[in-house]
Specification:
Number of helices of chain B: 23
CATH topology of chain A: Fumarate Reductase Cytochrome B subunit
Number of domains of chain A: 1
CATH architecture of chain A: Up-down Bundle
CATH architecture of the domain at 360-465 in chain B: Orthogonal Bundle
CATH class of the domain at 360-465 in chain B: Mainly Alpha
Number of helices of chain A: 9
Radius of gyration of chain B: 24 Å
Oligomer: heterodimer
Strand order of the largest sheet of chain B: 13-12-1-15-14
Distance between the termini of chain B: 47 Å
Helix content of chain B: 25-40%
Largest interface: A-B, 56 and 63 residues
Shape of chain B: globular
Strand content of chain A: under 5%
Structural class of chain A: mainly alpha
Largest sheet of chain A: none
Number of strands of chain B: 17
Shape of chain A: globular
Number of strands of chain A: 1
Radius of gyration of chain A: 20 Å
CATH topology of the domain at 360-465 in chain B: nitrate reductase domain fold
Distance between the termini of chain A: 52 Å
Structural class of chain B: alpha+beta
Chain lengths: 229, 504
């Protein structure tokens, strides 16, 4: 891989994708609030949604949590992996979750393609979202199976690269010599970020954690003055 | 005491003829859009029956409303707070489209485009979602007038604890009985839709108590649909937002009654302001089942009471609204005469739409191909007044619908209604005079002549201004402050901030 391509994929693209996700997400949330929705289709089809949505969401959320944990507490992960049996347990759990999530996405994709009612509420972007997520999970499984053990070497390679981006001192050379699977997995995440504000993925940021504390009832006495038109 | 005002509707079921004009008026104005085809914000059900969506009253199945732990605290039947977050990705008790019906239309263009042939062309039924041909298995009012089958009536959950003999009797064709139950959103005081919404998108309007969904905040988690025990929040599959009856607030704000009420052919609907004590909501919703109705009625305040008036003024309710509250026909029926009750108070949402239960004829039997009325041999007038258990619609059934199973409450109401009928009948047959027997009857129904006369007038010959006593919203003033009054001259409405189109 030439340096130019490397800089484009591992430096420029990440920043562009992040800027798109952040600015685009906020702009959409503020200016087009009606368009922000998880666009559930459970009313139209429920059975396959159960087998798709539940494995996908839980699988991907737990894996995402694992990735974030590694990013912020790499030394803890390194310590955990110091004992082989713990490393195996972690890797097997991660792989199982990835397969679970991959199964879920496949069911969702199949449901979207085959159910005539669901096709009516499907936009091209919905296919893009599912394809991006599927590729993300597949490259992840590829890394987990072929390049053992991800949680072991990531602490020394992927985590420093991510921190080099976060601290605005990008070091693409950290990732450049690595196998295609790893690079693809990382690039797919930037694609995911870039697609985020232009797809139904925006519903991630509306995850209603505040519900745990909200009072049962809500009475609005004065209408918020909004200038119409 | 925290006084708030509630726009409330009352349905006089004894007058409902089941014509569905209300449903059609509502559909034409609000739900004739993609994604809303299957929604009937106002629907009319044949009772006994399974209703719309099918079996909505069965909360063991749908998990709507509140449940009490028996110790004075209530919780959503649907979910715990953390459970809500866990069920975001798939809601196990969300009604399916089939529970309502698969919306369809007919391919009328085939009637014009068909080539010449021996047979008449037909307009095939097609799905309103996919546009493809569809095999219709149910539709709006599929069970209307019991739909030619006894399965709807026999599956009514409110019949569950009735005597098997009575249930069997109700299904015999000679004794079959039904009445109509129009339903809109109940704009509850303690709504489960608001409590269940993870996005805090649903709210109760302080000024008039209308429960609304802020569609800019709705994220399609669908908990409101599942949590509402009346199944009166609907999910728009096209826009990906929840929708519900808005009590036609744009009409009310310009002084017109909601479309369903305004179009009512039988003039069964009344609208008026009720004042209530918001501080009492929590305790009134948490009492034991047999005290629920009393606690709810207790939270509704007397607009003539000086203490209430002072507290209302303090709470920012204007003199003009108080004046309207004093003339409220709903207050008359609900509190003064006490003949209107909320539907299924055991859901503990404190529904604020009220129903006067319907009267029904006496049970008859067929003997030698002749109808014999099953009543004792005594003056005809008092037959039903004295023998309510001979009415075709079992008191227990009405009690299960309107009084949490309290049959005595229903009896009192039915006796009042019969008393007014008998009183007026005698009066008109005897040149305006009544005898002691009638006075005694009124007395035993807890009515005096003036009350009976007032009940008769408001029931039978009210003018439109007596049926709909709407408060002044002064919306023109608030609009003027924010908008140029001429900005939308000659246009329809004041435009969208954002077009209600599906997100991407």
């Amino acid at each position: 891989m030439s340096d130019t391509v490397s800089i484009m994929l591992f430096v420029v693209f990440p920043y562009v994708a992040f800027a798109l996700a952040f600015v685009g997400g906020i702009v959409r949330w503020r200016l087009k609030p009606f368009s922000v929705s998880s666009l559930s289709s459970q009313l139209l089809e429920s059975r396959k949604l159960f087998w798709g949505s539940v494995p996908f969401h839980w699988g991907i959320l737990i894996i995402l949590a694992g990735h974030l944990f590694t990013l912020f507490l790499p030394s803890t992960v390194a310590w955990w992996n110091g004992v082989p049996i713990r490393l195996y347990a972690l890797e097997i759990t991660g792989l199982a979750l990835a397969l679970w999530a991959g199964f879920g996405i496949s069911v969702l994709l199949y449901r979207r393609i085959t159910n005539p009612k669901i096709r009516v509420v499907t936009t091209p972007m919905d296919y893009v979202v599912l394809a991006v997520l599927l590729l993300q999970v597949l490259t992840g499984i590829w890394v987990a199976v072929m390049l053992r053990f991800g949680s072991f070497w990531a602490v020394g390679v992927a985590v420093p690269y991510m921190w080099s981006l976060i601290t605005l001192r990008p070091e693409p050379e950290l990732i450049q010599p690595f196998p295609l699977a790893i690079q693809a997995h990382i690039v797919m995440f930037w694609v995911f970020l870039a697609v985020f504000p232009f797809s139904r993925l925006v519903h991630i940021f509306t995850w209603p954690l505040g519900y745990v504390f909200k009072p049962w009832q809500k009475v609005v006495d004065i209408r918020e003055p909004t200038r119409v038109g | 005491m925290k006084v708030r005002a509630q726009m409330s509707m009352m349905f006089h079921l004894d007058k409902c003829i089941g014509c569905h004009t209300c449903s059609v008026a509502c559909k034409n104005i609000w739900t004739d859009r993609p994604g809303a085809e299957y929604m009937w914000w106002n629907n009319v059900e044949t009772r006994p029956g399974t209703g719309y969506p099918t079996g909505w009253e069965d909360q063991d199945h749908y998990k709507g409303g509140w449940k009490s732990d028996g110790k004075g605290t209530i919780d959503l039947r649907l979910q715990s707070r953390t459970g809500a977050l866990a069920n975001l990705f798939f809601n196990p008790v969300l009604p399916q489209l089939e529970d309502y019906y698969d919306p369809y239309t007919h391919k009328y263009s085939d009637l014009f485009d068909a080539p010449p042939s021996e047979q008449q062309p037909t307009a095939m039924p097609i799905s309103q979602i996919t546009g493809e041909p569809i095999q219709i298995s149910s539709g709006p009012n599929w069970d209307d007038d019991l739909g030619g089958s006894d399965i709807y009536a026999s599956n009514d959950v409110s019949l569950a604890d009735l005597d098997p003999g009575v249930r069997e009797q109700m299904q015999e064709i000679e004794r079959v009985v039904f009445n109509y139950l129009p339903r809109i959103c109940n704009h509850c005081l303690n709504p489960t839709c608001i409590a269940a919404c993870p996005s805090k998108a649903i709210y109760k309007r302080g000024e008039d108590g209308i429960v609304l969904v802020n569609e800019d905040k709705c994220r399609a988690w669908r908990m409101c649909v599942a949590a509402c025990p009346y199944k009166k929040v609907y999910y728009n599959w096209s826009t990906g937002k929840s929708e519900k009856c808005i009590l036609c607030f744009p009409r009310m704000e310009v002084g017109e009654a909601p479309a369903c009420a305004h179009s009512c052919v039988g003039r069964i609907r009344y609208m008026g302001v009720l004042l209530y004590d918001a501080d009492k909501i929590e305790s009134a919703a948490s009492v034991d089942e047999d005290e629920l109705i009393g606690a709810q009625l207790d939270a509704i305040l007397d607009p003539e009471d000086p203490i209430v008036i002072e507290a209302a003024l303090h709470a920012g309710i204007g003199q003009d609204w108080l004046d309207v509250a004093r003339r409220s026909p709903v207050y008359q029926f609900v509190k003064v005469w006490g003949i209107a009750l909320p539907l299924h108070a055991e859901f503990r949402t404190m529904a604020m739409m009220f129903y006067v239960p319907p009267l029904s004829p006496v049970i008859s039997t067929i003997e030698n191909e002749l109808v014999r009325l099953d009543i004792p041999d005594e003056p005809e007038d008092f037959a039903l007044f004295d023998h309510l258990d001979r009415a075709r619609l079992p008191v227990k059934y009405l009690a299960n619908l309107f009084s949490v199973g309290n049959e005595e409450l229903i009896r009192q109401i039915l006796r009042k209604m019969y008393a007014v009928r008998i009183f007026k009948r005698h009066q008109s047959l005897n040149d305006g005079t009544i005898n002691d027997a009638i006075r005694k009857m009124l007395d035993s129904a807890n009515l005096d002549e003036a009350q009976a006369e007032a009940m008769y007038r408001l029931t039978t010959i009210p003018t439109i201004d007596e049926r709909f006593v709407l408060p002044p919203y002064h919306r023109e003033m608030s609009i003027e402050e924010l908008n140029d009054p001429l900005a939308y001259k000659g246009k329809v409405g004041v435009g969208y901030i954002e077009e209600p189109k599906r997100g991407w």
